[in-house]
Specification:
Strand content: under 5%
Radius of gyration: 21 Å
Oligomer: single chain
Number of strands: 3
Largest sheet: 3 strands, antiparallel
Distance between the termini: 53 Å
Length: 399
């Protein structure tokens, strides 16, 4: 029997290498054999059918399985669609508010905040709490990217009001409110609301895809506390235990793993997770998370994405500048921690690594630039921040 490689099968079927490997591991390709550390796939093999496609041909079954008590709560985030078929899933949904939320999610996660705002600006006033919660989170972050800080604050305050007035007799609604509130706070690097129930109380009540994103939020929170190994433990366990691929949640989990591994100076592990996130994101253009996390990824985008995907890198950096400008206005105002707001992305990445103790030669090798160029970027950063030592950079960086 003749075999082809994983990469050839991926190209033939128009899917990622990672998905083909998953097909093999799950036993979904008849005759696939492992040769050493690689899979061989019979030349005559056809792409395995997606068992989820029939399930999602209408939204009814998806609602019964995943959204019995959370219909309208971030439905796209909570969907195990096959990478490359995101829009197909949305089109198969029944018309209505849930579909409108899913469309707004897609616009936001694909870096189109103007369209996301347009889809959600009416929904933030709805009585349906799941719809309103989803709309408020998307509306807040999309307006953040557009520099409409007042609208962002309005949406976040609406979530706080719902949290404060929620009935303790409705644990599922408490779980939904806790999820949205913690996501809004942690991703803005703000203190968690005092009235927020403990994570352990609401996680078991959340549907799978949303629970995975909630675990990303917890991992991100641990990263901010410099508990990198604990953060990685959550990420790795969540990714290994999933029985279906939830692309959006998985992208964010992989990105926080990159942050953790870069903090631990394990560049190869960081690269593996970045490429895994990229394989999930690229087929559907779900690049928003890369722009949001750029400042925390320690130059990994410059090192890995920029050389092979220069046009995508430019789009990600545009998201970074747009998102960061709004994010800093909220974060700096609320915390008094003046994160640098006038550095280029390369200056910020270089300064962050320098503040973590990396030498110029290490930074240069990692970012594919010379040590002298690194020195120039760090000098510019220090001049802009009016500091005289690398140690002083720490107070302006998110380490």
């Amino acid at each position: 029997m003749e075999y082809i490689t994983v990469s050839k099968a991926a190209k033939k079927w128009n899917v990622s290498n990672r998905l083909v490997q998953k097909y093999c591991t799950d036993g979904r390709i008849d005759g696939a054999k492992k040769f050493g550390g690689s899979w061989g796939i019979p030349c005559s093999s056809v792409k395995p059918k997606d068992p989820r496609k029939d399930k999602h041909r209408t939204s009814a079954l998806h609602s019964k399985v995943h959204l019995v008590s959370y219909k309208g709560l971030m439905p796209l985030l909570n969907t195990p669609f096959e990478p490359g078929r995101c829009w197909e899933f949305i089109n198969d949904m029944a018309d209505g508010l849930e579909k409108q939320i899913a469309i707004s999610e897609y616009y936001y996660f694909s870096g189109q905040p103007e369209k996301a705002v347009k889809e959600t600006e009416i929904l933030i006033t709805y009585d349906n709490r799941e719809i309103k919660l989803s709309a408020c989170l998307i509306y807040a972050y999309a307006n953040l990217s557009l520099g409409n800080i007042e609208k962002t604050i309005y949406a976040l305050n609406a979530v706080k009001e719902m949290l404060a007035t929620a009935s303790s007799n409705k644990p599922e609604m408490q779980a939904a409110l806790s999820f949205i509130s913690s996501a809004a706070a942690v991703l803005l690097h703000l203190p968690l609301p005092e009235e927020l129930p403990p994570f352990d109380n609401y996680l078991p009540l959340l549907p799978t895809g949303i629970r995975m994103f909630a675990l990303y939020v917890i991992a991100h929170y641990l990263y901010l506390k410099k508990e990198y190994q604990k953060s990685l433990g959550i990420v790795e366990a969540t990714l290994v235990m999933q029985t279906e691929e939830y692309p959006i949640s998985s992208i964010y989990l992989h990105l926080v793993a990159v942050m953790d591994y870069m903090s631990l100076k394990q560049k190869n592990k960081a690269k593996e997770h970045l490429l895994s996130a990229w394989e999930l994101a690229k087929p559907d253009n779900l690049i928003e998370g890369f722009g949001e996390h750029h400042g925390l990824l320690g130059g990994m985008l410059e090192s890995v994405i920029k050389p092979e995907y220069p046009e995508d890198f430019r789009r990600i950096i545009a998201i970074t500048y747009r998102f960061s400008a709004g994010w800093r206005k909220i974060h700096n105002q609320a915390t008094g921690h003046m994160v640098a707001d006038n550095l280029t992305t390369t200056e910020f990445a270089s300064a962050m690594l320098a503040a973590r103790g990396w030498k110029n030669a290490e930074i240069g090798a990692h970012m594919n630039i010379s040590a002298n160029t690194v020195k120039w970027h760090i000098t510019n950063a220090m001049q802009k921040l009016n500091v005289s030592s690398r140690q002083e950079l720490k107070k302006y960086m998110l380490l």
